[in-house]
């Protein structure tokens, strides 16, 4: 499902105009993004948890030259599905 499809389904399901549904969906995404940027986790009960994961610094290899390189630590967004979602998909 794309973002546009989500907006259309929200508009239809909640009897909103497409513009109002777009504003609502964008607000949820923006608030979630802002919380993750601040380092907070976003818990949506029955769906899952969005959080920031840290990847440790490690050694890697340049495939073109075979040279060993140092890959720096970085943070990445992650998602863990909730129990309810896991049961529905199973």
TrEMBL record:
Key word DNA-binding present: yes
GO CC annotation, single: cytosol
InterPro entries found in the cross-reference section: Hist_DNA-bd, Histone-like_DNA-bd_CS, IHF-like_DNA-bd_dom_sf
BP GO annotations: chromosome condensation
Domain of life: Bacteria
Pfam families: Bac_DNA_binding
Name of protein: DNA-binding protein
Gene source species: Candidatus Daviesbacteria bacterium RIFCSPHIGHO2_12_FULL_37_11
């Amino acid at each position: 499902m794309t973002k546009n499809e989500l907006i259309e389904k929200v508009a239809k399901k909640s009897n909103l105009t497409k513009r109002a549904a777009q504003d609502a969906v964008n607000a949820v995404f923006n608030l979630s993004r802002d919380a993750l940027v601040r380092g907070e986790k976003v818990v949506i009960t029955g769906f899952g948890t969005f959080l920031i994961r840290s990847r440790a610094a490690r050694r890697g290899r340049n495939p073109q030259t075979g040279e060993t390189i140092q890959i720096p630590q970085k943070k990445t967004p992650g998602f863990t599905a909730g129990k309810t979602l896991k049961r529905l998909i199973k």
